[in-house]
Amino acid sequence: MIGEKASRLFLHATNVHQGGGKALLTAILSAIPKTTQTTAQLDRRMAVSSNLPENLIIEFVKPSVLQRLRAEWRLARNSRPDDVILCFGNLPPLFKLAGRVQVFLQNRYLIDDVPLCDFPLKTRIRLWIERLWLSGRMANVDAFIVQTPSMQRLLLARTKGKVPVHVLPFMADPANYVRRIGKHEAAGNSQIEFAYVASGEPHKNHRMLVSAWCLLAEEQVYPSLRLTLDRRTFPDLCDWIEQQIVQHQLNISNEGSLPHEAVTQLYGRVDAMIYPSTFESFGLPLIEARQAGLPILASELDYVRDVIDPEESFDPESPVSIARAVKRFMLKEEPPLSLQNAEDFLGHILERAK
Fold first, then answer.
1. Structural domains of the chain, ranges and CATH numbers in brackets
2. For 281-312, how does the pLDDT look when each residue is reduced to its tens digit (9 = 90+)?
3. What is the pTM of this model?
4. Angstrom distance (rounded) from CA 1 to CA 84
């Protein structure tokens, strides 16, 4: 919670306007304490509710380099020693501020040593700049806030322990969240429907997931899969998936990019969530799927175990492993190896030598 002694709160979020960041920022804006004078600098593309606290002043900032630099300057000029500044867009302030600065960091690409080669050039340049910004302005931060222990470990290694890193996971409505739901009636259903709620960035791993569906089709197993990809943003990926659907007669459909209300409705229509992402800062869809009572098949990685215990797990780098997890969940047994004794083995060797 924001300390009661703070005279004012500054919420700096000039680069947040979509996805999970938008959902969390919307929740923050609605939760502003009525006794705290608050100024929020927001991306002009950020849609906000008309029913916000009266003590909240919003300054919309155009998404341009010049306007964001001006917002940084206004923040530095207006902050006082007893203010709290919450930077909600992963990056520290450009200038040293008088108040106490806390940075909410949820972009794992900025602190994890993962290659960026699969991104478009424009995105790679932006991430390189943001990595440099983060490392070059850590002295302007009093504390970082992350959502999971995995992110905390990565960031502590990056900061070498010089800046405190606090784990404060939150979402708009944490009701009905549990780590595991146990046995589910969907298991064993030959008509089971899976959903993967994710955008199309490389780490979301759609190609490996669809390759697993191709392997299942070779075994005459055709589970349904619902994706949520924006064709305008990821045309090459969508084209490739459509080719696989036609070639292997896959039961895959793309719902397109969905607003949060539609995602909630999708959870109500499917039987399970599958989540092959190779890394996440939080994995909000995992929690939302669990809140909806869905069983989850997910990557056997730390970020998953930080928030839930999946009903099935797999190696996200192996389509075979993903396909086997799907079959286990559907109660389809993997055929055993046809083991032989030494005599039979030598018999085959000698037979083939003839």
1. 8-167 (3.40.50.2000), 193-329 (3.40.50.2000)
2. 999 999 999 999 999 999 999 999 999 999 99
3. 0.83
4. 11
